[in-house]
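Narrative summary of target 7.
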Amino acid sequence: MNSFATHSILNPQRLIQLYQFHPKLKNIWYLVAATSFSVCNEPQEIPKLYHYAMSLSDDHAKKYRVTLAHKTMELVNNPDHDLKARLINEIYSNPSTPQLKLTQKFRDALLTSGPLAGLPRAINGLSSLKEYTPTVLLPKTPQIDPWEAAMGREEPCPATMREQIHSMQDRTKIIQRGLNHWNSLYNKVSTRVVNNMNSSYPDLWYYALVHVYGPLLSFVDVLNAQEKSLIVIASLVPQDVNPQLRGHLKGALNIGCDFETIEATRRLSILVSQWCGITWRDGIVQLTKKKK
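Modeled conformation, tokenized:
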């Protein structure tokens, strides 16, 4: 079932450690960890986080967190791929609304990391997740014929597209939404950051706005703006890109994340990165809490 690396970083104790890492992350710890693993090129760990989070989605299950961590590892590490697929489909034959939303959030978080950390890693992360997703929770996607689409005889992105863009007006609205998000994020330094990018290469700013901030980072139908901002932080921490990380740590504050949540996200991503063997040249930038 799993075509990725066979070595394992997560175990029951580490799953529990991530779950209990910080109370501010109780509803997003698994997305922060999954994004960090994807960016660190360890996509085989994502299904373990997914199934552990799924098993804990019922508040009453949390008292069994230790048992569920062991059961998660047994399920995901089952060497019989066909049996594993059957068990997953049996366990989630009638998934709850929280489990549906959790699945959607996993996909959205991994997609969000794509332009920030590299599309190949996002593809691998999403592919690994798909292999362990119950059939009933897989997206209902039609077959696409790229040759027919190239001839204009069918839509290149039919019902699977997150937002249908039917006209230039729709496209303009999405770009405007991206600009609004950009300004909210960067606030006082927005103009300076834009012109730094534009002076480096105009296509850089154009790409960031039209293809990243517009359709993706400002899309908040699955993850809200604050959750998305934390996912961006988790995407940047493993990469040793302090200038960008500094901007997004401050940006998270600007769009309503509190200091403790931002710092907990940063530290959880550091922990996962260290488990993956990531090192940093000059440390990892962090926010300084302002004195009252």
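The chain has a mean pLDDT of 92.
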